[in-house]
Predict the structure.
Amino acid sequence: MEFFSDPSAFLEAAGDRLAADPVVSTVVTTVADREVRRRASGDETAYPHAPHWYAVARDEAGEVTGIAMRTATGAPYPLFVLEMRAEDARELARHCYGRGEIAPANGVLPAAREFCDELSRLAGGRVEVKEHTRLFELGDLVPPESAPEGWLRLARRDEAELCLDWFNRFHTDAAEQAGHPGTHSMTQEFDLDDMLGRIDEERVWLWEHPAHGVVHLTGANPPAFGVSRIGPVFTPKTHRGKGYASAAVAEVSRQILEGGARACLFTDQANPTSNKIYEALGYRPVVDMANHDLL
């Protein structure tokens, strides 16, 4: 098992494996690509917490057989695990235990669960699934039959605090909507500088209603390995059910496709509202994942 703190060195080692399935790899490629760009701009504080690493497993012939990372900026700083052999997942768990890093893993099944089972065995705890998630990719875009009143526009810098609040509220509200209030799978904590950067990159859109003002937010990540991941998608409770999410995600998806990238997004499998919205737009399931807790 190889560990990397430098995202460029990691991408050099694992790039071919990531490129072979860039949609499933979207979380890892987005994070690594963003970190590379930040470091190139002179920003060395993008990930100030510890630990922070990427891991690559190889077989006896030296071929990459598994990838994981621990780059989450929110406690308990879970790992994100892509597909890997069961023995690789267990080896990674033993490495983490030996390093004193007792943290759960999110990501592709069954690898993420294999990791958690081994780590919990070593640490004397138990594993609990926090959320069953599903990754979707857009096929042929099917725009909504009717659009709600108002228009979609890019967020402005003077709206950064509002956008930050909605980014940070998204996970808790989505968890409540899915039927498990009081919990969320947030692994990234956003700050104002991060939000300003996203706004400057033109990756945050707002739906504005002529009478009610801003009523919805849709975000998206810059393309990495030819894939752009949409999220978060947030509408305050008082404005839900009006079609803002469908219209906004459809338009952002269209822009992603016209820019030459593939569009994908995650849903909580327990949230029937979001799953119905995205499938109606032409999103199709790619792989099931899970977020775990170690208790």
